[in-house]
C-alpha cells in the first residue's frame, strides 16, 4: 500500500478537507479516499486485495443474509454515531436468526462538501465496532451526490452469518403459552437521538443503547436452543416488533406494563413530549419468545450476559384470532398495544 | 417520576374503584362526558373503563382541538402554502387531518409545499428569524391552553419588528362549545333529584354530568363553568389528566348525582383556582378578540366561540396578509365524526370505524390526533369490541 500511496500528489487533508464529487467518480481521487480512509481503517486481507468483490470461505450450514440502510440525523449522538450504528444494526439483524455473523459489506452515499474529518470519525467508529464484534468489513462501495442531494452520509451495510445446527428461530414460531422476554430497558436510542435535535436540544442524561447483540444471542441459543422468536425492537419499538410476531405467527400477546423496564430519564422525556416508550426505537435490545418451561433458563442466561443484565419476563403469547397485543396497565386496566401509525420520530436509525 | 407516578398508582386506583362501586345506586345510570381529549386519552391509555361498574358510562366529548377544526380552515391552509412561497409551521397532528377531498398538509408537503412540523410556536418564530427572506406562517390551533403562548409570540414578533412572521389563528374557546353541547340536551328537569333517572340507560345524547377540562381550567378558572350548573342543571367536576384524577372526579360526580346536587367542583386543586391565570387572560385579551362566529366540526357555526387577532397585530395576522378564502369542505359522507364529537355516537358505532377509517388512512379528524375519540379507541380499546362481538 505504501508504494501506491506515493502516486498521489499529496495525502488527503483529513483535518480540513471535504468530500468532492471526484471522490465518487471512479478515478484517482476515489482510489485515494478508499485507500487512505476506508482501507486504512477497516484493514484486512479481503480489502487489501482491492477487487470489486470479496471471496469468502463459509462453513457448512444455513447462511443468513441481512441488509440495513442508515440515515440517522444527527450523525453523532450520545452513545454512538451513524458509523457504529450501521455495524450494530446489520449484525443484529443477522443475529436475530440465532446466527453467528461472519462478514459485513458497507456502501456509502456521501454528500459533496461533507467534512472529511467527520467522515474519518464515522469510519473509525465503524472499524472499532466491527473489530469489537470480530466481524470484518470485507467489501464496500462509495458514491458521492451533489451538495443538497443527500444529508451528509448515508450508510448501507449487509451482513452474512451462519446458523448453528438445531436452531430454528423465526417470527412465525410464537405459540400460545410461550413466554415473552425483553433483554433490557426501552427507548434509549430513540430518545438520545431526539434529545439532540436542534429544535429540542434537551440536556437529558440519555445515551443510545446501540450495541451488537450476537454475543448475547450466542449465549441464549446455547442455553435454550429451542428459542422460537428473536427480534430487535428498532424502528417502531417494542410494539411494532410484537405486532409483527403476532401477525406472522397468528397469535396474540398479553403484556404486563409493570414488568417492562424503562429508565427514569427516558420515561420523563417521553412524558414531556407525549411519546410512548413502547414505540421508541432501540438499537441494543432484543425480544425473545420461548416455551414457558424454558423461560427461567433463558432469563438466567440473558442476565448473565452484560447486554442482558436487566432482562425481564414481560408477558406471554396467547391464542387470539385478532392478533391483538394487549397489556395490563400499571393502573390495573387493559389497553391495546397497537402498531405505530405514521412516524413517531423521523430518521432515528 | 415525581408528581406523576403518584397519580398513576394502581393500588390507589383499586381503592377508588371499590368506593365508586360501593356508592353506585343500582337503579341509576351515570352517563358522564369527559369534555377533553386529554381525558379521553388517559381513559383509553390506562384502561380506566375496566375499573368502572357497568352503571357508569363514559362519553367522549369535543375537547380535541385537531378534531373540531373544520375541513375548510385546513383546506385554506393547504391552498395558502401551495399558492404562496410561505413556510407553514404546524404541530404534527394537523399534518394528517383531512381537508377537502381527503387532501392533507402532509400530501401538500410531498407535492413540494414547505410545511414544517414544530413542537412549539416559538420554534416557528425561530424559523422566521432564520429565513428573513421568506414569509413564515404558524398554524395556531387549540383551546385556551395553547392560546397564551401564541399571544406571547405575537407580542415578541411585534417587538422585534419581525415582518415575515404571521399567525393563522384558529384558537377556540371552551365555554361556548360546552354551552352549545348542553343546548342540545333534553331540558333540565324541574327536580335535580331525578338526574341520572331522566331517561333510560345509554339513551342517545343523554349526559348526567361532566368531567371538566384540566389544562384549559388552569387558564380560565372554575368560575367559567358556573353556567353549566346554574343554567343547565348538570354537575361538572374539573379534573386533572392523570388517571387517578379521572377516577376521583368520577367518584365526585357519582356522589353529586346521588345527592341530587348540581355544582361545579374542582378535583384539580393542585393547578386550578376559581379565577384562573389572570396574566394569561390579560395576554389573550391584549392580542385576540372574539370572532362573531366560527365553524366547529361536529357542532356547526357557534357564536362567540373563537378568537381572531386584534387589528393592532394585523401585520402578523396571516388572514390579513394573505388571501385566505372561506372554504366549505364537507366531511366524508360515511364519517360520523360530527356525532362522535357531540357524544351521540361511540367511535365503534361509526360505519367506517376501523374499516375504511384507520389512523393510517383517516377519513375524519377524530381518527388523527391521539386525543381524538376514534384514534384513542382504535389504538387502545378496540379489543373490547372484538371481545363483545
- Count every helix of chain A, treating DSSP H or I runs of 4 or more residues as helices: 10
**Distance N to C terminus of chain A:** 34 Å
CATH homologous group name of the largest domain in chain B: HypD, alpha/beta domain 2
Largest interface: A-B, 24 and 33 residues
Task: Describe the model.
The complex is a heterodimer of chains A (349) and B (389). With 349 residues, chain A is of the alpha+beta class. In chain A, 30% of the residues lie in helices and 21% in strands. Chain A has helices spanning 2-5, 28-42, 45-48, 82-95, 116-133, 188-196, 214-223, 237-249, 264-273, 295-303; strands at residues 62-70, 76-77, 80-81, 100-111, 137-145, 153-163, 179-182, 229-231, 252-256, 287-290, 312-318, 325-328, 334-336. In chain A, helix 5 links the parallel strand 4 and strand 5. In chain A, helix 2 packs parallel to helix 5 (116-133) and helix 7 (214-223) packs antiparallel against helix 10 (295-303). Chain A is globular. Chain A starts with a helix and ends in a 13-residue tail after the last strand. The model of chain A has no long low-confidence stretch (mean pLDDT 93). Chain B is α/β, with parallel strands linked by helices. Chain B is built from 15 helices and eleven strands. Chain B has helices at residues 10-23, 37-45, 65-68, 71-83, 105-110, 121-130, 147-160, 174-183, 215-220, 226-230, 243-259, 278-287, 318-321, 337-342, 373-388, and strands spanning 30-36, 56-63, 87-90, 115-117, 136-142, 165-171, 209-212, 236-238, 264-266, 288-296, 300-309. In chain B, the strands form three sheets. A five-stranded parallel β-sheet of chain B has the order 2-1-7-8-9, sandwiched between helices. In chain B, helix 7 crosses helix 12 (278-287). The longest helix of chain B is centred in the middle third of the chain and has 17 residues, at 243-259. Chain B is globular. Mean pLDDT of chain B is 91; it is low at 198-202. The A-B interface holds A 199-200, 258, 264, 267-268, 271, 273-274, 322, 324, 326, 328-336, 338, 341-342 and B 1, 4, 8, 10, 13-14, 17, 44-51, 96, 118-119, 123, 126, 243, 358-360, 370, 375, 378-383, 386.
Amino acid at each position: 500500500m505504501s508504494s501506491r500511496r506515493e502516486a498521489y500528489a499529496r495525502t488527503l487533508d483529513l483535518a480540513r478537507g471535504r468530500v468532492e464529487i471526484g471522490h465518487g467518480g471512479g478515478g484517482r481521487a476515489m482510489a485515494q479516499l478508499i485507500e487512505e480512509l476506508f482501507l486504512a481503517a477497516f484493514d484486512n486481507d479481503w480489502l487489501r486485495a482491492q477487487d470489486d468483490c470479496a471471496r469468502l470461505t463459509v462453513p457448512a450450514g444455513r447462511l443468513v443474509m441481512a441488509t440495513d440502510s442508515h440515515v440517522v440525523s444527527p450523525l453523532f449522538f450520545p452513545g454512538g454515531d451513524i458509523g457504529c450504528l450501521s455495524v450494530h444494526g446489520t449484525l443484529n439483524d443477522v443475529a436475530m436468526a440465532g446466527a453467528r455473523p461472519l462478514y459485513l459489506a458497507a456502501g456509502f452515499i456521501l454528500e459533496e462538501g461533507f467534512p472529511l474529518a467527520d467522515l474519518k470519525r464515522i469510519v473509525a467508529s465503524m472499524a472499532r465496532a466491527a473489530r469489537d464484534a470480530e466481524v470484518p468489513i470485507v467489501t464496500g462501495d462509495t458514491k458521492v451526490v451533489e451538495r443538497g442531494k443527500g444529508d451528509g452520509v448515508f450508510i448501507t451495510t449487509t451482513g452474512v452469518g451462519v446458523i448453528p445446527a438445531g436452531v430454528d428461530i423465526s417470527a412465525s414460531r410464537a405459540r400460545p403459552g410461550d413466554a415473552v422476554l425483553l433483554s433490557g430497558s426501552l427507548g434509549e436510542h430513540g430518545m438520545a437521538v431526539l434529545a439532540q435535535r436542534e429544535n429540542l436540544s434537551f440536556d437529558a442524561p440519555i445515551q443510545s443503547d446501540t450495541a451488537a447483540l450476537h454475543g448475547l444471542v450466542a449465549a441464549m441459543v446455547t442455553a435454550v436452543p429451542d428459542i422460537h422468536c428473536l427480534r430487535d425492537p428498532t424502528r417502531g419499538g417494542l410494539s411494532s416488533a410484537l405486532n409483527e410476531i403476532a401477525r406472522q405467527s397468528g397469535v396474540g400477546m398479553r403484556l404486563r406494563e409493570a414488568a417492562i423496564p424503562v429508565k427514569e430519564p427516558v420515561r420523563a422525556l417521553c412524558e414531556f413530549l407525549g411519546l410512548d416508550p413502547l414505540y421508541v426505537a432501540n438499537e441494543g435490545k432484543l425480544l425473545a419468545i420461548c416455551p414457558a418451561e424454558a423461560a427461567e433458563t433463558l432469563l438466567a442466561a440473558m442476565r448473565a450476559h452484560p447486554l442482558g443484565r436487566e432482562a425481564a419476563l414481560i408477558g406471554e403469547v396467547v391464542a387470539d384470532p385478532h392478533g391483538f397485543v394487549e397489556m395490563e396497565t400499571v393502573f390495573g386496566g387493559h389497553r391495546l398495544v397497537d402498531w405505530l401509525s405514521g412516524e413517531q420520530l423521523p430518521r432515528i436509525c | 417520576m415525581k408528581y406523576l407516578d403518584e397519580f398513576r398508582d394502581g393500588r390507589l386506583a383499586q381503592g377508588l374503584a371499590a368506593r365508586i362501586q360501593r356508592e353506585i345506586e343500582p337503579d341509576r345510570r351515570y352517563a358522564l362526558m369527559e369534555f377533553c381529549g386529554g381525558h379521553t386519552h388517559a381513559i383509553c391509555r390506562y384502561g380506566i373503563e375496566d375499573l368502572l361498574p357497568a352503571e357508569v358510562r363514559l362519553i367522549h366529548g369535543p375537547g380535541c382541538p385537531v378534531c373540531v377544526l373544520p375541513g375548510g380552515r385546513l383546506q385554506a391552509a393547504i391552498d395558502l402554502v401551495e399558492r404562496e412561497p410561505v413556510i407553514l409551521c404546524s404541530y404534527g397532528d394537523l399534518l394528517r387531518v383531512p381537508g377537502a377531498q381527503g387532501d392533507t398538509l402532509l400530501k401538500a408537503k410531498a407535492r413540494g409545499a414547505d410545511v414544517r412540523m414544530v413542537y412549539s410556536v416559538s420554534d416557528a418564530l425561530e424559523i422566521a428569524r432564520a429565513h428573513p427572506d421568506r414569509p413564515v406562517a404558524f398554524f395556531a390551533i387549540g383551546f385556551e391552553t395553547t392560546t397564551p403562548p401564541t399571544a406571547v409570540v405575537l407580542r415578541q414578533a411585534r417587538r422585534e419588528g419581525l415582518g415575515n412572521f404571521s399567525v393563522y389563528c384558529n384558537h377556540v374557546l371552551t365555554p361556548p362549545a360546552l354551552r352549545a353541547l348542553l343546548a342540545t340536551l333534553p331540558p333540565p328537569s324541574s327536580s335535580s333529584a331525578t338526574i341520572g333517572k331522566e331517561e333510560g340507560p345509554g339513551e342517545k345524547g343523554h349526559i348526567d354530568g361532566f368531567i371538566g377540562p384540566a389544562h384549559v381550567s388552569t387558564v380560565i378558572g372554575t368560575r367559567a363553568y358556573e353556567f353549566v350548573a346554574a343554567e343547565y342543571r348538570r354537575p361538572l367536576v374539573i379534573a386533572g389528566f392523570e388517571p387517578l384524577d379521572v377516577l376521583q372526579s368520577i367518584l365526585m360526580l357519582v356522589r353529586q348525582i346521588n345527592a341530587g346536587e348540581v355544582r361545579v367542583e374542582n378535583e384539580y386543586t393542585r393547578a386550578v383556582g376559581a379565577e384562573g391565570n389572570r396574566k394569561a387572560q390579560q395576554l389573550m385579551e391584549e392580542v385576540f378578540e372574539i370572532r362573531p362566529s366560527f365553524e366547529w366540526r361536529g357542532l356547526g357555526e357557534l357564536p362567540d366561540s373563537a378568537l381572531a387577532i386584534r387589528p393592532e397585530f394585523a401585520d402578523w395576522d396571516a388572514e390579513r396578509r394573505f388571501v385566505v378564502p372561506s372554504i366549505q369542505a364537507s366531511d366524508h359522507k360515511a364519517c360520523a365524526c360530527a356525532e362522535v364529537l357531540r357524544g351521540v355516537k361511540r367511535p365503534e358505532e361509526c360505519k367506517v370505524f376501523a374499516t375504511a377509517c384507520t389512523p393510517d388512512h383517516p377519513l375524519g379528524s377524530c381518527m388523527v390526533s391521539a386525543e381524538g375519540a376514534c384514534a384513542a379507541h382504535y389504538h387502545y380499546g378496540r379489543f373490547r369490541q372484538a371481545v363483545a362481538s
